[in-house]
Input
Amino acid sequence: MRAMTSIAMAGLLTLAITTTAHAQRMDAQIDCTPTGEAFDHHCMIHLMEVPDEVPVEDAEFVVRADMPSMPMAHNVPPAPAAPGDGPGVYEAMLELEMLGEWALRLDIAAPRRDVVVVVKDFGDHEEGDHGNEHGHDHDHD
Amino acid sequence: MDDFTISVISNIGLFSFVALSAYLLLLTGEISFGQQAYFALGAYGAGIATVMWGWPLAIAVVWAVAIGMAAGALVALPTVRLRGLYYSIATLAFAEMVRNAFLIFRYRREVDGFEVGPAGAEGFRDIRYIYETGISSFEYMLLIYALLAGVMLLFLLMETARLGAVFRMIGDDPVLAEMQGIDVTRYKVLAAAIAGGIAALGGCLYAHMVTYVEPAIFNVMLGVHALAYGLIGGLGTAFGPILGVIIDIGVLESTRAFSGYRMIVFGGLVAVILIVRPRGLLDETLVHRVRLWLRPAR
Output
């Protein structure tokens, strides 16, 4: 019980942090293609600053995936993004558990800490089709 | 600790809040399919507080818990006299009302040059508090478990106090409890309010972890899982629902032992456990035996 009290006190201290907002934000467009193996998808990510849409270079981030219809129930391993061809372009391999709507969260560590969420419908599509061409892409961060 | 482990452990912690919320109502003999509604109210309420009103997370947490408790008490007042299936359907109906309300709820304003806020079916984005304050995933996981430890502490205190005994007595036989002079209505409203507050706390933490919520997240699947965790983990102790979450998220899901068949396996597991151990793995009998075993010999 003492351990629980200590942990709770530590949490309250963390909660006391006050907010400092950033004026700049990042945004992303994600285009995914099924690899043909299970529900794996190869994704091309175009990362940019908003609102001026300047590509973000040398970014370091992982892509996390969660199903809005089954929150917290799927734990897809976060996919590290690697630089692709062109400025602001990155690639990541997602090992999804099933088709359907997934919220992809780009957890960005560099050039500064940020987060971008893109909701994509990984529908049942023919080989060669792209994930975001079927269904809908929601507005993103 | 790697990203995947942090993500799994954080999800176990977050699911535990809503599972504990359903567990508390199970103790009073009520099966609620609607705890996801309070989870949603906490998520949206706290999100609006930090994003649009610029409140610190600490105050937003208190605000979310207050919203959840108030909503829990308000829903309990008209439903407290319902029993069994009727109560379950009433809670499910309330949860669907809340989810559908968020589908049309729009409250947008400009903050730091960006329009933010709930946008109906498009969801509520930019709940970026932990990113803007530089809290890492690991630190946030610790925060989740700190608050979970606080909730568990309350449960452990409650279970050793008169309140816990009263809740269990009402769960066993409300008529007999009434005959013993217990105000069943008052205690049921109290249980519903506490349960609402716990679920809302989980929702607040969830929204700030994922930074994005939408009404689809708060569907009946969340409520059914929360209920199932208590039923498989056991009703003998508050560790029961957490055990249920660990079995599903920590073992079946994260090890990917059954891959896409996990939901089928989980459903089968719930059915088998309900037949073999109707009060769950950590049921009252087992917990009583463990307590006797742990008690120092005189």
